[in-house]
Each structure stands twice: as C-alpha cells, then as structure tokens.
C-alpha cells in the first residue's frame, strides 16, 4: 500500500523491535523539521485569535483538570432502610419520597406497564428495574424456563435478582427512587421475598398486583416471544399467586382499572405502607 506520492507506509511499531532497515522518519520527511505551521493573519474586521496555551510538562501523578469527565464520586449503595413514617400520614405524598417498591404479580398482571407509568409520573427521579429485562441481558446461553426449568435457568433468575438488587441500592444511595417488578411466589419465601430483602434491604415496600384470571389470560395472549406463556402455565401461576391473600401484603385488583388509575391506587397503598410498614 502506498501514499498518493508513491512513498511506502512505515511498518507498524512493535515493542522491542527497531525500525526496519531502509526506513526512518528522516527518510520519509527529508529536510529540516518544519515546526508549527504559521498562523494566517485574521481577515479584515475580525479580531486575532488568542494564543494557544503552552503545553507545559505534566507529571503522570498530577490530578486531572477540574473539567475532566469521569471523576464524579458516587455514594456506595448499602441496604435500603425503611422510610421514616410522616407525622401526618394523611398529608403525606409518596410521589415526593425516595423509596424502593417491589411490584409483585403473575404474568399478564400489568406489572411492567404500571411500573413504567408510575416511575414516569413521580416528582422525584425514579428508575424502573425490570427483572425480565435484566434476565434477557444474557444473549448466548440464555436459559428459557419454557424449555424446561432446571438448575441453569434458576441460577440465571437468581443472578438477575441479585443484579437488580445491586442496581436498586445504588440508585437509592444516589437519590433516585426505584420500582422493581417480579413474579414472586408466596410459597417460596427464601428465593422470593426473602431474596429481595437480602438484595435490596428491609426498606423495600412490596405490593401485589393481582387481577382476575380472565384478565391475565387475555393480556398474556397479546404477548410474543419467550414472554408469552401457555394458558395452562398462566392459570397455574395465577393460582399460586392467590396465596398472597391473607399474607398481610397490600393487594391491588386492577381487573377493571386502567394504568393511570392503578398507579394512583399504588400511591395510596404506598402512603399506608410507609405509615405502617407491612410485616414480611
């Protein structure tokens, strides 16, 4: 390969090797070094440009200039504590409180849609952390439970929950609320609520979203890809979710509610949960 003028390209530099015989910078650029290019005079009517700053010597250990990006200190994320109950719960507005919420429900309950809407309409910065989205970060080697639940798929679910918990702690430590959504089963407390409490902290506020079976079947039918389940699987999951009744956790039946209405009820439920935290 050659330049337009016919001069050969210099060989690639390799550590520990001397330049190839027959080529040198002097041979490639004969004559004295031209030095910096002269600055042309300004056009008539325009001021002269300011002189270029002198690039003085800089030691490797010197701190970066104050305007350098990538050096913003962030508080580390720790276990999330329970929000302090307000003096007047009736006057308390959860829309302006930094909190962590876990929205529980079966496939087709509308968890993701409600969580996104709720996060979008708060007065304080709020993040939505979807377990399914994080789980699908795995591309090659993705373990789809629809192909058979096994140790590999369960390990990926546990890893996704731990990753979501890590993200939630860091968001809250830096002043950003978060809402997580997951299909947590009441008959698996160790890997369900117990796992979320370990990953996020005791201040996590769980709320169950549980519409009727006909609603979740209808919504599931509108899904595609690996998020669409069989009717039998949806019915089985919904039946297991019924175990949340009597658990003490707040439950919202959004069978006849739209997303904005459900989000408003979620705010009301969270107001009561902050004032009187559920035992879980």
Low-confidence stretches: 1-13, 17-30, 86-91
**Residue share in helix:** 25-40%
Q: What would CATH call the class of the domain at 98-275? A: Alpha Beta
What share of residues are in beta strands? 5-15%
CATH-defined superfamily of the domain at 98-275 = P-loop containing nucleotide triphosphate hydrolases
pLDDT averaged over residues: 77
The count of helical stretches stands at 8
Main pleated-sheet profile: 5 strands, parallel
Helix/strand/pairing category: alpha/beta
Order of secondary-structure elements: HEHEHHEHEHHEH
Radius of gyration over all CA atoms, rounded: 30 Å
Choose one word for the global shape: globular
Number of strands: 5
Q: What's the architecture of the domain at 98-275, going by CATH?
A: 3-Layer(aba) Sandwich
- Looking at the structure, the CATH topology of the domain at 98-275 is Rossmann fold
Short description:
This protein is an alpha/beta fold.
Q: What's the topology here?
A:
Elements: H1 25-28, E1 100-104, H2 111-120, E2 126-130, H3 131-135, H4 151-173, E3 177-182, H5 193-199, E4 205-209, H6 213-221, H7 231-241, E5 251-252, H8 259-275
Parallel strand pairs: 1-3, 1-4, 2-3, 4-5
Helix pairs in contact: 2-8, 4-5, 6-7
Task: Please give a structural write-up.
31% of the residues lie in helices and 8% in strands. It is of the alpha/beta class. The longest helix is centred in the middle third of the chain and has 23 residues, at 151-173. The chain starts with 24 loop residues before the first helix and ends in a 5-residue tail after the last helix.
